[in-house]
Amino acid sequence: MVNVELQKVSKSYGKVNVLKNLDLRIEDGEFFVLLGSSGSGKSTTLNILAGLDKLDSGKILFDNTLVNELSPIERGVALVFQNYALYPHMTVYKNMAFPLKMLNYRKERIGPIIKEVAEKLDITALLDRYPKELSGGQAQRVALGRALVRDPKIFLLDEPLSNLDANIRSKIRNDLKIMQEELGKTFVYVTHDQMEAMSLGDHVGILHNGKLEQFGKPIDIYKHPNNAFVATFLGDPEINLFSYSWNGKSFDGDGPFNFNININISKITMGIRPENISLEKKGANTMAGKIIPKVSELLGSHTLIVAKTLAGKDIKIITDMTDIPIGKEINVYANIEDCIMFDEQGETINI
Amino acid sequence: MNELTRKYNFKKNAIFLILVPSFIYLIIFFIYPIILSIKYSFTNISLYDISHYSFVGFHNFENLFSSSEFLRSVYITIVFLVVSAIFGQMFMGSIIAYLLTLTKKYFRLVVTTIILIAWATPQVTAGIMWYSTLSYIPGGTINYILNHIGVASINFLSTKFALYSIIIANIWIGLGFSVLIFLGGIQGIDPSLIKSSYIDGASPFRRFFSIIFPLLKKTIVTDLLLITLFTFGTFTLIYVLTAGGPARATNLLTIYQYNTAFSVFSLGPANAIGVIIILMALGISLIYLKIIQVD
Questions:
Q1: Residue A260 CB: number of other CB atoms within 10 A?
Q2: How far is residue A330's CA from residue A150's CA, in Å, rounded to a whole number?
Q3: Contacts of B200 in chain A (CB under 8 A)
Q4: DSSP string covering B111-167
Q5: Number of CB atoms found within 10 A of residue B104's CB
Q6: Can you give the pTM of this predicted structure?
Q7: Taking Cα atoms as reference points, which of A70, A14, A7, A13 lies closest to residue A44?
């Protein structure tokens, strides 16, 4: 049971600054997701947390104790790798026994621990197999098992789902969430997939070029992004962004709507999520505009419309309607409260 | 027949034609001599008169296996192989390669190059160099140093020590090759497996013996096969250094074979020894493959 704190952590490889004064606080027993595109420094953060990499400056605190110089085993962390990193020359049993052997546990003590963990993960039948005889999902569970036997304080997971087939990915994602809740341990999960971040994380940190762009509950970040980068990163299909400028009477730009807000900046970027645009007028204070649909994709419960605004800019809309006239102008409506405004630097403007 | 298939057939024939010279080369210089060697091993051919000989069946082999000198030579060769090739070159080479992977890139480059220089040294040069290092009268480098720190000279090339000396010389000359092969092998291991062993708390010692060494199976087999053949064939270095002596203490099979052929001019038995060397090398290679079980 630990909370984890990073204070002003910097790390560079050669001339490349991977992490720049990173501050992060992970609460005890929470499922924390670190989200970032490749090269954002998320794996480096994980390696530093695990004790595989030394940091250049800053502090790492586990329960307010400095662990900068401690080895992975002394920190009590377990790491699950993207490719599972099961030792190919050992059976599942031996893979799981390896961390315990390294702690000089006796054989009689190792057996029961592995039996218990294997039952919990439902891999008892696999104990005599070699890693190459396992499916992706099974290997995933064995990797988790190898992490579990040592009863670590913190679990670090490095994109553990990205090597799995799409159809079992969501199942394993649920399993992970349930497991974390049962264990009540601190999980730090690194991913580039915003969907995983949104669905798993108690808190999410968004990392971009070695800096933490935003930290908070997934829904808060989704609704109130700090800047345009975060707004674009979360959400699938991604948020629509349009540039607007003040023409003396209202804001005018390449989006479908013109609007009037009380702000003393002449150039702004307006963002609106695809699900916040509707094809029917509802409620008060609604902005109206026109678009020309190009393609409509039926995604089961809803339809994704890819369209052009009259100014020729792409726009994506999610709607419940299925019968979309392609190539004809149609009316669209939205609420100004659902829009997020960004200044020229991409920072969010509070209205 | 259309244009395309004609072109294709021409290509197939052309490849065959291009390969013909190398086949001829292989047959003349490799296959034929081996067959000839096997044939002569069953004859009493002698350098005194190579045009007259007769077949003597297994007589040469029977003589060899009843000769204590030959059996001693087999024993020396096997000790030489096991200690200098398997333990010295392969085992030590893998450990040195592992230690090198833990060091900085430039240090690794420099050390690897230095170790490799030994491998690239001409064997006669290496032999003379080792002789001048180990020599007793006049005192070589090591004895010179020993005398300076007040220790009496040791005759490294005496009956007692000569075998150890040639083992060390052979480790020295072959180590770079194994280090190079293992460096490649270790770098080919999935880095996350090695990271994983850190997470699991393996000490550097356990990491090497429990994770890295077993994962190097293929590299080990490749290395063992090659250095075994090199070591079986070692002649120049040892001949220059000890010439099989003193009192046949370092009489490897190759040196024994050379002496049989060119000191006593008995080509038949010498060829029989050659055949035995080939069979031993084959047998040992099969043993490696059996023990290590590469899939």
A1: 11
A2: 61
A3: 73, 98-99, 102, 146, 150
A4: HHHHHHHHHHS-HHHHHHHHHHHH-TTTT-HHHHHHHHTT-----TTSTTTHHHHHH
A5: 9
A6: 0.76
A7: A13
Contact assignment for B210 to A99 by CB distance below 8 Å: no
Question: Nearest CA to A84 among A148, A138, A153, A154?
Answer: A138
Q: What are the backbone dihedrals phi and psi of residue A11, each rounded to the nearest 5 degrees, phi first? A: -155, 135
User: Closest Cα to residue A32, out of A210, A187, A214?
Assistant: A187
Which residues in chain A touch residue B293, judged by CB atoms under 8 angstroms apart?
none
Dist. CA A73–CA A147, nearest whole Å: 11
Subunit contact A71:B195, Cβ cutoff 8 A: no
Q: How many CA atoms lie within 13 A of A275 on its CB side?
A: 8
Residue type (1 letter), A233: F
Interface of A with B (CB under 8 A): 47, 50-52, 71-73, 77-79, 81-83, 85, 87-89, 98-99, 102-103, 146, 150
Residues of B with CB under 8 A from a CB of A: 190, 192-193, 195-196, 198-203, 206, 210-211, 214-215, 217
B108 token code pair: 């690794």
State the pLDDT confidence band at B29, using cuts at 50, 70 and 90. very high
Nearest Cα residue to B259 out of A21, B269, B249: B269
Cα dist from B50 to A147, A247, B31, B117, whole Å: 74, 110, 21, 42
Cβ atoms B260, B270 nearer than 8 A? yes
d(CA B285, CA B295): 16
pLDDT of res. B25: 95
- Helical ranges in B137-266 per DSSP H: 141-148, 162-187, 191-199, 204-206, 213-215, 217-233, 236-241, 253-262
ipTM: 0.78
Q: Do B192 and A85 touch (CB under 8 A)?
A: yes
- For a pLDDT cut of 70, what percent of chain A falls above it? 99
Category of A251 on φ-ψ map: left (φ > 0), alpha (ψ -120 to 50) or beta: beta
With beta carbons under 8 A apart, name residues in chain A contacting B198. 51-52, 71-72
Cα(B220)–Cα(A176) distance, rounded to whole angstroms? 40
Residue A111 half-sphere exposure toward CB, CA atoms < 13 A: 3
Distance linking the first and last C-alpha atoms of chain B: 44
Average pLDDT over residues A180-189: 87
Domains of chain B plus CATH, in order, are: 61-291 (1.10.3720.10)
Q: Which residue has the tokens 């969501």?
A: A170
CA distances from A285 to A316, A341, B181 (A): 22, 17, 74
Q: What are the beta bridge partners of residue A187?
A: A31, A155
Beta pairing partners, A227: A347
DSSP bridge pairs for A305? A296, A317
Decide if A60 contacts A5 (C-beta within 8 A): yes
Query: Which contiguous run of DSSP H or E holds residue A47?
Result: helix A42-50
Which run of H or E residues covers position A108?
Answer: helix A107-121
Please report, for residues A109, B45, B56, B67, B275, the alpha-carbon distance to residue B261 in angstroms, rounded to integers and kept in the order given: 65, 10, 17, 16, 14
For A288-330, how does the pLDDT look when each residue is reduced to its tens digit (9 = 90+)? 888 899 988 888 888 899 998 888 888 999 888 878 888 888 8
Q: How many CB atoms lie within 10 A of CB B275?
A: 17
Residue pairs between chains A and B whose CB atoms are closer than 8 Å = 53
